[in-house]
Amino acid sequence: GVWACPTPARAPGGPGGRSLKAPSGSFFGTNLTADRTHGIGAWSDAEIEGAIRRGVLRDGSVESPVMPYYRYAGMADSDLRDLIAYLRSLTPAAVPNRPHEIELPFPRLMFRGWRLLFAGDLEPPAEPPSGALARGRYLSDHVSICGDCHTPRNRFGAPVEDLYLAGTDDGPLGEVVPNITSDRETGIGSWDLGDIEILLEMGMKPNFDNVQGLMAEVIDGVGGGTGYADASAADRKAIAEYIRQVPPIVHKVRGQGSG
Questions:
Q1: What does the alpha-carbon distance between residue 6 and residue 47 come to, in Å, rounded to a whole number?
Q2: Sheet holding 101-102, edge to edge
Q3: Cα separation of 174 and 159, whole Å?
Q4: Quick one: how far is CA 247 from the chain centroid?
Q5: Residue 135, Cβ neighbours under 10 Å: how many?
Q6: Does the structure show a pLDDT above 70 at 156?
Q7: Is 200 helix (H, G, I), strand (E, B) or coil?
């Protein structure tokens, strides 16, 4: 089955949920449990698929790109079915959703325009790729969505693909997100395969320091959900092998050195 590493901003939300500040406003995680009133218990599989892959809600409106549907668009059909089945298994929680605080005129029109300009058009495979390197890329880009945090964004909130996985000083919740390309000076090019696997499993860096903040949460899992630590060793190795060969990009991020 599929596993994923949601950011706290997309964990089941409510009045006390953590917010994610974006150029277009503040966004709050929504209730994804099987509750029929506040969650997605009354949604059809097709409606859930539309929200995950295409950013289209039940009423036909387009979601904010804070929900990275444009990355999940490449998730394999079989993995998406597993994900929907998992969401339906969550215990219903009667927690109302907190309205987003959007700072845009005509936001739904703006979000529709963003999708046309930046979302692209991915054709998902029926099944995930089986080769180690191809699977590592698939998991990184469309399941655990590493680029959602590790790739910087432009003024419109769109990923700057020329800096793919090169880190940013202004990541989610204002955190610094490191460069994880293979550059030896500003990235993790000096790490070996095992170093990356250990970090994904236990959160430990080669210098024996532990990761903190959001990365620690997506390793351990958020709110009882699964994280990298719960993935199979084979999947962690596939991700590590893929990350190791990402082309080096010289991009210095605050506090990051070579090792």
A1: 20
A2: 19-22, 25-28, 101-102
A3: 16
A4: 21
A5: 20
A6: yes
A7: helix
| Rounded distance between C-alpha atoms, residue 99 and residue 14, angstroms | 9
> CA-CA distance, 241 to 46, in Å (whole number)?
34
The one-letter amino acid code at 117 reads: L
Neighbours of 145 (CB within 10 A): 23
Model confidence pLDDT, tens digit, residues 205-251: 999 999 999 999 999 987 777 899 999 999 999 999 999 999 999 99
Give the CA angle between residues 34, 2, 63 to the nearest 5°.
Answer: 55
Q: pTM for the full model?
A: 0.89
| Burial class of residue 166 (count of CB atoms within 10 Å of its CB; 0-12, 13-18, 19+) | buried
Three-class secondary structure assignment of 127-144: CCCCCHHHHHHHHHHHHC
Element (H, E) at 20: strand 19-22
Eight-state DSSP code of residue 246: S
Both structure tokens of 75: 């998730």
Q: What angle do CA 97, 92, 220 make, to 5 degrees?
A: 80
Tell me how far CA of residue 189 lies from CA of 1, 180, 240, 249, in angstroms. Answer: 31, 8, 12, 10
Residue 22: what pLDDT? 79
Strand partners of residue 18? none
What pLDDT, in 10s, does the model give residues 10-32?
Answer: 334 443 456 787 778 888 889 99
